[in-house]
Amino acid sequence: PPALPASSSETDLVPPTRIEPSDIEIPDRLLENPDISVSDNTKDIMLDNGIRVLLKRDTSFPIVSIGFSCSMGSNREPAGLTGLSEITAETMLYGTAEEESIEFNARLENLGTSVDFSSTTEYAGGVITSLNKDMPEVLSVISDMLIRPAFRRADIEAVKSDSISTLEEWLKSPAGAAMNSFSRLSTDPPQRAAVPTRESLE
After folding, report:
1. Residue 147, exposed/middle/buried by CB under 10 A (0-12, 13-18, 19+)?
2. What is the spatial distance between Cα 82 and Cα 194, in angstroms, rounded to a whole number?
3. Residue 99: how many CB atoms within 10 A of its CB?
4. Maximum CA pair distance of the chain?
5. d(C-alpha 131, C-alpha 186), whole Å
6. Residue range 159-184: average pLDDT?
7. pTM
8. What is the dihedral of CA 156, 159, 165, 168, to 10 degrees?
9. What is the DSSP string of the chain?
10. What's the number of CA atoms in the CB half-sphere (13 Å) around residue 123?
11. What tens digit of pLDDT does each residue of 124-164 get?
């Protein structure tokens, strides 16, 4: 008869206590900064204030979509405050210094506008989509939010609470547990790991 597989005690692997970045072989081509690709019929404009604008005109639908980003992702967060950039991005949509969250979002909804803010490892930014005719008013509302965000304590606490609940549920999944362990083992110091903790969110 064929040999039976080894028992689990014989095949169990002991995970490393730490992964040194120098032990990971990464091809040089993956470490190079890729050339920025600009599609045909796209204008590449550099404003006087240093902001780069990529503009493409498409008249298939009467809408305007604006995407924007800045180098303020999680890799710029202070050690021990992982998750700060994502909480900041989410709280941006909670109104302005003069307008509460409900009123602010009602105005955007009445304009049929879609607004999304998020943060990644390298960038923080968002996407705004609106009808052509409403875009001037939409930009006025959004610029007010960007220049004078409210950041009310109650709103920040609500976003933090939601973030902690989402994190704890995610860490219960195999993917979440694996990503969390890898992030802590491969980061020096561990407090700068890409995956936040309850303490860093609080």
Report:
1. exposed
2. 7
3. 18
4. 79
5. 46
6. 89
7. 0.66
8. -80
9. -PPPPPPHHHHPPPPPS---GGGS---HHHHSPPPPP--TTEEEEE-TTS-EEEEE---SSSEEEEEEEES-SGGGSPTT-TTHHHHHHHHTTS-BSSS-HHHHHHHHHHTT-EEEEEE-SS-EEEEEEEEGGGHHHHHHHHHHHHHSB---HHHHHHHHHHHHHHHHHHHTSHHHHHHHHHHHHTSSSGGG-SS--HHHH-
10. 8
11. 888 999 999 999 999 898 888 888 888 999 999 999 999 99
Is residue 182 pLDDT above 70, yes or no?
Answer: yes
The dihedral over CA atoms of 135, 139, 141, 145, expressed in degrees to the nearest 10, equals: 150
pLDDT band at 13 (very low <50, low <70, confident <90, very high): low
